[in-house]
Structure formats: C-alpha cells, structure tokens
C-alpha cells in the first residue's frame, strides 16, 4: 500500500541523458540503484521530463548548450526503459511533469498542494543531472515545502561531470537538504 506521506521524485531519467546525446557513463552506472529505489519505494512517485521543441537552439538554454536533446516525441525524450521497467506499470500522465527549463514550478506547486492535503514527511529526489535539474528541483522543493525532510540519494544521481556532481551535492547539503549514500 502506498504511504501518502512519502514522495519519490525521479528527475529527467530520459534516454538522451543516459545513452543519448548528453549521456554519460555515470548516468548509466546509477540505473541499477535507481531501479532498486523505484521497485522498493512504498510512497507516491512523481517524474519530471526535460522537454524541448523545434525552437530549442533559439532559447537561452539552447544558445548556452547548443546540443539538441529531449525533443518532445523523440526516442531521446522518452523516460529510460530501465525506469519504466522498475515502475512496473504505465506511468500515469498526472504523475509526469514536462518542463522546458531546469526546474518545474508545476512540480513544486503540486507537491505543495499534496502537502496541504496531508503533510508529506519525506521526499527523496533521484535522477539526472545532479548539477542542473536535480539541484534546481531540490531547491524549488525546499521553498515549496520548507518543513518537509528532503533527501537526495547520491547513489541515484549523476552529474555532467564527477566534479560538478560533487560540487552540486555540497550546495544541496548547504541548504539543509539531506544527502545520503555519498561515497
């Protein structure tokens, strides 16, 4: 039975960030731990999806990172098969937050609304990439539900580089977000 006081947020574990245009060996390496976390989670699970369109290269992000990725409707945009397998059923559309930028205001508002209905005691954040979307969404969640324990599982996140990953974990910990499984 799903514990309504526990929330797992899976950030952008999409093909382009695992093995596609922006994939890394570190992203591939976290998949077994991510699968284990999803399979064993007894609370609600929400997902974000980085989502871009034909005009991506004309956006601020596209000008600063001119690598087309996560174009809506493409293979690279899809949630990685390992995540879908671990979830074990069709992911409800209401539990997926498509976002055109690093953080998802819609996700933060949804979590705040859930918390208003029944206080969320624990949020865990996993996914890609530590130094961009994981950090952005963790910080947004800290603002949305300031009294909720928020944890980033370092074994289930990967950064653009190992150095950027470590720097982001330091910053996340600095704003009173727990960081676990940091080796």
Task: Describe the protein in words.
The protein is α/β, with parallel strands linked by helices and 183 residues long. It has seven helices and six strands. The protein has helices at residues 15-18, 25-40, 60-64, 81-87, 105-117, 130-144, 162-174; strands at 3-11, 43-50, 96-99, 122-128, 149-158, 178-180. A six-stranded parallel beta sheet has the order 3-2-1-4-5-6. α6 links the parallel β4 (122-128) and β5 (149-158). α2 runs parallel beside α4 (81-87). The N and C termini lie far apart (32 Å). The mean pLDDT is 97.
Question: Which descriptors would you attach to this protein?
Answer:
alpha/beta; 6 strands; 183 residues; 6-stranded parallel beta sheet
Give a nutshell description of this structure.
The protein is of the alpha/beta class. It contains 7 helices and 6 strands.
SSE string: EHHEHHEHEHEHE
Q: Given the structure, what is the number of helices?
A: 7
- Tell how many strands the DSSP assignment holds: 6
Q: Order the strands across the largest sheet as they lie in space.
A: 3-2-1-4-5-6
Poorly predicted runs of 5 or more residues: none
Assembly type of the shown chains?
single chain
Mean pLDDT over the residues: 97
Choose one word for the global shape: globular
- Taken as a percent bin, the fraction of beta residues is 15-25%
The main pleated sheet reads as: 6 strands, parallel
CA radius of gyration = 15 Å
Task: Please estimate the helix content.
Answer: 25-40%
């Amino acid at each position: 039975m799903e514990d309504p006081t526990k929330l797992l947020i899976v950030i952008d574990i999409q093909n382009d960030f695992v093995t596609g245009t922006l994939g890394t060996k570190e992203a591939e390496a976290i998949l077994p731990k991510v699968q284990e976390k999803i399979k064993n989670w007894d609370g609600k699970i929400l997902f974000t999806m980085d989502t871009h369109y034909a005009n991506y290269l004309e956006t601020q992000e596209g000008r600063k990172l001119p690598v087309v990725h996560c174009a809506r409707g493409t293979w690279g945009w899809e949630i990685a098969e390992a995540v879908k397998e671990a979830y074990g059923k069709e992911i409800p559309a209401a539990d997926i937050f498509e976002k055109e930028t690093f953080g998802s205001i819609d996700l933060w508002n949804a979590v705040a609304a859930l918390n208003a209905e029944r206080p969320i005691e624990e949020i865990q954040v996993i996914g890609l990439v530590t130094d961009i979307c994981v950090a952005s969404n963790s910080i947004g969640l800290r603002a949305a539900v300031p009294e909720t324990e928020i944890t980033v599982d370092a074994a289930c996140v990967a950064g653009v580089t190992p150095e950027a990953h470590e720097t982001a974990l330091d910053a996340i910990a600095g704003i009173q977000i727990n960081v676990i499984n940091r080796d």
